[in-house]
Design goal:
mainly beta, eleven-stranded mixed beta sheet, about 10% helix, globular
């Protein structure tokens, strides 16, 4: 006697097969390039940008409610030739930065960079170089680079940069910043503005 399936069982089997097919299709979609786990992700709160062998890491502004603050970052020269940071300033209106943009303050001023900053090969420049620890720095920003007998910084040393004041940007805003180098191409990127106590140590328990 031939074996037959009830219509209810047949419908259930068909539905189960359709569900399995749909789950496979959805899994394939999530495995595409647009999947969240395959997208670039920046864990630091600041902005990371690069120009050739120059890498700017965790750049951000710490400011108070009146729009007075300070620029924090680590700038690394991974190349074999010296480089200079010529200027750091608010980008001109309409400057493209390759990111999802945001409305920036009308006018932001960066002061404190009075001369080009030297970036020796394979060294890091910490901004600011004194005072509170710059976010993202792996070592103390007050550390000065050791020198070889020839007087050149030891590869991998950390140099203390100047304190660069920022006025006109308040916490919660984004500032489009352009960094100009002596040789490397200039770069622009949106930099977040956080509260000036964002990285302050927790008060000691009384």
């Amino acid at each position: 006697m031939p074996i037959t399936l009830s219509s209810r069982f047949a419908r259930r089997t068909a539905l189960a097969g359709a569900a399995a097919t749909l789950s496979i299709a959805l899994a394939a979609c999530s495995a595409s390039f647009s999947a969240p786990t395959l997208q670039p992700y920046q864990a630091a709160e600041g902005t990371n940008i690069e120009s050739g062998q120059i890498k700017v890491r965790n750049m951000l502004v710490l400011a108070d409610g009146d729009g007075k603050g300070e620029l924090h970052s680590v700038i690394v020269n991974n190349g074999d030739a010296p480089e200079t940071v010529v200027s750091i300033e608010q980008a001109a209106p309409g400057t493209a930065d390759g990111q999802a943009g945001a409305d920036q303050p009308t006018e932001v001023k960066f002061t404190g960079l009075t001369k080009p900053l030297e970036l020796e090969p394979h060294t890091a420049l910490v901004l600011p170089g004194t005072g509170t620890e710059a976010p993202g720095a792996e070592t103390s920003p007050s550390t000065t680079p050791s020198e070889t007998p020839s007087g050149t910084p030891t590869p991998g040393a950390e140099e203390a940069g100047p304190a660069i004041s920022v006025t006109g940007a308040k916490p919660g805003q984004m500032v489009n910043v352009t960094i100009t180098f002596g040789t490397a191409a200039p770069v622009s990127a949106y930099v977040p503005v956080l509260t000036d106590d964002h990285y302050s140590p927790s008060p000691a328990a009384e």
